Amino acid sequence: MKRGSVPFLPPVNPWFVRMAGTVISARMQKLIIPFLLIFSFSVVAAQPPSVAFGLGLETNMNARNGYALGSMVKIDGEIGKQFALGVCLGLSRDLSRFVTIEPAAFFRWYMPVLRSSGGGLFLQGDAGMSIIKDNSEMRYSFMGGGTVGLRYAFRSGSYYIEPYVKGGYPFLWGIGIVTGCRF
């Protein structure tokens, strides 16, 4: 080998051009990679993402005895036509001494049943934490659950109303309604 020359190195194929242990030929790479890029950009450009902001009221089991009344603020963004990601902040209080704050993130799937522009029947998974104040004592707990609801978008598509039922830990159950707008 001559001084200053680089020894021959085999071509390095990135992970996305390997399929089931075989290497895709250079010609196929030239066809597949541009197709995937064009397809991914067209999917994103087909529908601009919409963001929704909502305020809600609910009743739940965040109480030692009986039930609690609460409110919430919710922000979510659609991912494609069937999914959404969001965050919510709930505050509930029983009629005596419990105050619960629940910051959470959620993932929502709009089911094909009753699907309409800007809404429809959905299943949602929630995860976050519960900050519980019982008189002067503060406690922290994991919060997780599932929600079933129906987002109904009004004719303009900008405003919606969303009744829901939820179950999980530590609140056991909850029922409420959210109203808001989409941007």
Q: Summarize the amount of helix as a percent range.
A: 10-25%
Give the averaged pLDDT, no decimals: 80
Low-confidence stretches: 12-23, 42-46
Radius of gyration: 24 Å
Specify the overall morphology.
globular
Helix run count: 1
Strand residue content: over 45%
The structural class is mainly beta
Number of individual domains: 2
What is the CATH T-level topology of the largest domain? Porin
Order of helices and strands: EEHEEEEEEEE
Q: For the largest sheet, list the strands in their spatial order.
A: 3-4-5-6-7-8-9-10
Determine the N-to-C terminus distance: 65 Å
CATH architecture of the largest domain: Beta Barrel
How would you describe this protein?
The protein has 183 residues and is mainly beta. It has two domains: 15-46; 51-182, Porin, CATH 2.40.160. The chain is 11% helix and 57% strand. The protein contains one helix and ten strands, in the order ββαββββββββ. The chain has an eight-stranded antiparallel β-barrel. Strand 3 (51-60) and strand 4 (68-79) form a beta hairpin. The protein is globular. The protein starts with 17 loop residues before the first strand and ends with a strand. Mean pLDDT is 80; it is low at 12-23 and 42-46.
